[in-house]
């Protein structure tokens, strides 16, 4: 089987969990048929910045606290999140992706709203690490 991307007008980077990959912190997916269809059509490439950063699946849930990413056990995993975002961004650059569809509320992929760092389910204004990197580079991002 050969792998090649079809010629498309817009290529998306998408959160792997939305493409049906079991890469969420709890080992599950957040499959979204629209995203799965984009991948099947060769119009999207799935990534999981948290796995790219070396974090296992499953893993303790993580939230952003005062600019650092902490897991539910109190361990600082900021370096993993930054490294994973940088690696995922390399794919964005290599592929020339112009848009991204990312998992809402995620400390990596959340756009505009993320959990507040108290692990209580409260949301605050903010972006995940990867989402912020994409926005800064001018990539159009949206939640599922």
TrEMBL record:
<dbReference type="Pfam" id="PF04463">
    <property type="entry name" value="2-thiour_desulf"/>
</dbReference>
<protein>
    <submittedName>
        <fullName>Uncharacterized protein</fullName>
    </submittedName>
</protein>
<dbReference type="InterPro" id="IPR007553">
    <property type="entry name" value="2-thiour_desulf"/>
</dbReference>
